[in-house]
Amino acid sequence: MSELDIRNVHVGIDGHEILKGVNLIVKQGEVHALMGPNGTGKSTLAYALMGHPSYEITEGEVCFKGIDLLELEPDERSHLGLFLAFQYPVAIPGVSVANFLRTAINAQRRAKDPDDKGISIPEFRRMLKERMDFFQMDHSFAGRYLNEGFSGGEKKRAEVLQMAALQPEIGLMDETDSGLDIDALRIVAEGVNSLRGPDLGILVITHYQRILNYIKPDYVHIMLDGQIVETGGPDLALHLEEHGYDWLRKRKRSAAA
Ligand code: ADP
Ligand code: MG
Asked: What CATH architecture does domain 3-88+170-179+202-256 belong to?
């Protein structure tokens, strides 16, 4: 069984320490929610895990499937089965959603088997149609340039579509709920729920409890100021909705004093 094992990770941006010792284990088959107010470092963790060059890991270790993740290039991390749905997906003008997905799928297949001929066009089309139907996307979506002029909801659906097509072992979803109206949120959440199963571990990053009404996490973690300060079950998210983060801030301050 695959697991992502994050140990005492410190991350700096331009010499400023943002993450101050994060510990977290996500296993295949589990759904974790990472919550916390804006600016606490949730996205920083996601970017650092994917190998974004601006996010320097100054201390700590990350092991994925027993391999030192930090030694790998971003594409190698992805081929190994780690997926990141971005909070702010970038547009790729000139590259259609379909082309992007087919290229990504083929790169992943070739990383596993250098002789792989790639997914056949009919098989790819069938898979893509099936997934788009599931996410209630118009088929013309496949021909549009990735994220160019996409609405907030379309961007998020495109991210979940990518995750469905790439079938990662661990998926990180950064604020996949932001900018979604309630219908789009439900579709995205149903999509994620449909992918749930023993082969997929998910880390849902959100500062908003709302998506957790639809995606029921097994574990909830709360990040404050670059550290996970509380871990619990789904009830913790409900507790937060009612009480906010202040009790954790106070507890942290008195522990530091
Ligand atoms: P969250 O996702 O929890 O809202 P972020 O990880 O985006 O928080 O940000 C954590 C802190 O790091 C913030 O103070 C933010 O301003 C800072 N930060 C994030 N990314 C960058 C960057 N590329 N350059 C400089 N500072 C950054
Ligand atoms: Mg963020």
From this structure: 3-Layer(aba) Sandwich (3.40)
